[in-house]
């Protein structure tokens, strides 16, 4: 009878990992150059997207304010103030444009011409008159405007804010 002791678990040793038969680096310089070119293009593309997003911040802020004004149209007490703020909002958007056009002193026909020039599509026929009425008409006349006309004015303003042309 043999008296050999059973091996213990403490005697076990971890096996060394084998070296892979291939390298993780590209086999030729061409693949490395291609990888660097793809990374450079991705970096440039990401930078351009980020700059455009930063440049259009004024549009996003104006659209948030416009949504607040549209929500205020349903409240009778805030309706008049919301309607009065619409032309001012359009002027602030024009002043915030990246190409900084000289619109601070524009009024009347020059202001309407500026809006029409920067619009992506022709503005509706009554848009200029609607903005003039909203800006300068007495309160009683302003409250007498049909809701459909007011909502159309706000919708056209939204379209102009979203899509106006900016020369960069």
Descriptive terms for the model:
168 residues, mainly alpha
Description of the structure:
This protein is mainly alpha-helical and 168 residues long. The protein has a domain at 57-163. The protein is built from seven helices and no strands. The model has no long low-confidence stretch (mean pLDDT 87).
How are the SSEs ordered, and which strands pair?
Layout: H1 29-55, H2 57-72, H3 76-95, H4 108-118, H5 127-136, H6 139-143, H7 147-163
Helix pairs in contact: 2-3, 2-7, 3-5, 3-7
Order of helices and strands: HHHHHHH
Average pLDDT metric = 87
Number of H- or I-type helical stretches: 7
Portion in helices: 55-70%
Helix/strand class: mainly alpha
Strand content: under 5%
Radius of gyration from the alpha-carbon trace, in angstroms: 32 Å
Quick description:
The protein is mainly α. It contains 7 helices and no strands.
């Amino acid at each position: 009878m043999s008296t050999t002791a059973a091996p213990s678990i403490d005697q076990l040793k971890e096996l060394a990992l084998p070296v892979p038969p291939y390298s993780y680096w590209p086999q030729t310089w061409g693949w490395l150059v291609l990888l660097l070119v793809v990374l450079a293009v991705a970096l440039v593309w990401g930078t351009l997207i980020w700059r455009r997003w930063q440049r259009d911040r004024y549009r996003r802020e104006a659209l948030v304010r416009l949504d607040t004004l549209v929500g205020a149209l349903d409240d009778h007490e805030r309706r008049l103030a919301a309607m009065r703020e619409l032309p001012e909002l359009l002027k602030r958007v024009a002043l915030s444009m990246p190409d900084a056009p000289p619109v601070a002193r524009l009024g009347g026909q020059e202001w309407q011409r500026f809006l029409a020039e920067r619009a992506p599509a022709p503005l509706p026929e009554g848009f200029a008159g609607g903005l003039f009425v909203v800006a300068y008409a007495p309160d009683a006349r302003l409250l007498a405007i049909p809701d459909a006309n007011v909502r159309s004015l706000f919708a056209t303003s939204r379209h102009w804010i979203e899509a106006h042309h900016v020369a960069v």
